Amino acid sequence: MMAGGNERSMKTLKEVWRRAENSLCADCGKPDPDWASSTLGVFICLSCSGIHRNIPSISKVKSLKMDHWDDAQVQFLAKHGNAVTKATYEAHIPIYYYQPTYNDCQVLREQWIRAKYERKEFTEPGKQLPYSDGVKEGILWKRGRDNGQFLPRKFLLSEREGCLKYFTKQDAKEPKINVKIDVINAMFQPVKIGNPNGLQITYIKDNKTRNIFVYHESGKEIVDWFNAIRSVQFHYLKVAFPIASDNEIKNRLTRNFLKEGYMEKTGPKQREAFKKRWFTLDHRRLMYFKDPLDAFAKGEVFVGSRENGYSVQKGLPLGTQGNFSWHYGLTIVTPDREYLFTCETETDQLDWIAAFTSIISQAMTPQEYASKCLDAVSFPSCHSGSGYCPNASPFSFTTVEAYFKFKS
């Protein structure tokens, strides 16, 4: 039921609400928004309306079902709507800027909304933005690898040098790490890190995936760091691969993990006791850790395509030995061996199977073939039956480039 008002206005409001352009939340894309901003003229979901409510100087929100709309407000909505408002506030979004969806965390969605309407970052072409000038320097709270304590560390991101560095001391001349920008991934992990502004940065070090966990007290600052990494990656790759389209490069920037969570695993002989481990599926790489916040993965499995002999099966092979406390099993079949896992619940089991199936059903790209071949050349022990590939990095342009240089 819609809230009261004169009949003609209510009819107009309903017609505007039914427009195709207004069928998704203007800010996160969630279907069937039932709130709107009477000052911006956009239709939004309940979750985004809560963020708008925190910037009352910019946006006044009302329920389309429960609140009263006067004639002037209805006419304002009719004149604007999502398409017209987006044409103003989203006119010049940098291609590398991450536009969150309703599946993303609060800090990403809040800063996206504030960037659009409060700071008006995308209304003019060529506007100088805090993440667009190719260099960013500042303090982030970083989790210690061994003691688990978060301590302030100076970070430096440089497009000119093509790297991300951090320093253990403010006046240190040499960085603790210096990582090439094209092997970095970053994603928000507020639940895992235990901070609403928690960011996980991953990269390859000594043939292993390395994790860094950081946060900043300011939601704006941590999201600016995230988009600065994407900006530097984008421009670095544009120079390295001039024939690639902008969208191809955009799709090679930061990405979220497909799935994470606990499973039990056994060893290659399949007679050892099953051990509880934290697993992360990053496209074709399945990594496992003793603890979710470990700095290094204990092992990695490359997950190929069905055409190349990979599959996922519900349950464990008949006669499986070894003690396991969870009883919802699944088996990953590779050309080299079978990997056995158990899940705590049937829901977990089905979710993992769905995630693996989505990857296995995709044909491998030339880059993924090259990455797998390079791993076999550089790390033959990875393919000697164990199947664990500590350097598998199917997203890395550098891997592909290095492989073809090696072949030539």
Automatic annotation (TrEMBL):
Pfam families named in the record: ArfGap (PF01412), PH (PF00169)
GO MF term list: GTPase activator activity; phosphatidylinositol bisphosphate binding; phosphatidylinositol-3,4,5-trisphosphate binding; zinc ion binding
Any GO CC annotation of this UniProt entry: plasma membrane
Keywords: Cytoplasm, GTPase activation, Metal-binding, Repeat, Zinc, Zinc-finger
Coiled coil: none
PH domain sequence ranges: 133-234, 256-361
CDD domains: ArfGap_ADAP, PH1_ADAP, PH2_ADAP
Domain Arf-GAP: 7-130
Subcellular location: Cytoplasm
PANTHER family: ARF-GAP WITH DUAL PH DOMAIN-CONTAINING PROTEIN 1-LIKE PROTEIN, ARFGAP WITH DUAL PH DOMAINS 1
Descriptive protein name: Arf-GAP with dual PH domain-containing protein 1
UniProt source species: Falco tinnunculus
Phylogenetic lineage: Eukaryota, Metazoa, Chordata, Craniata, Vertebrata
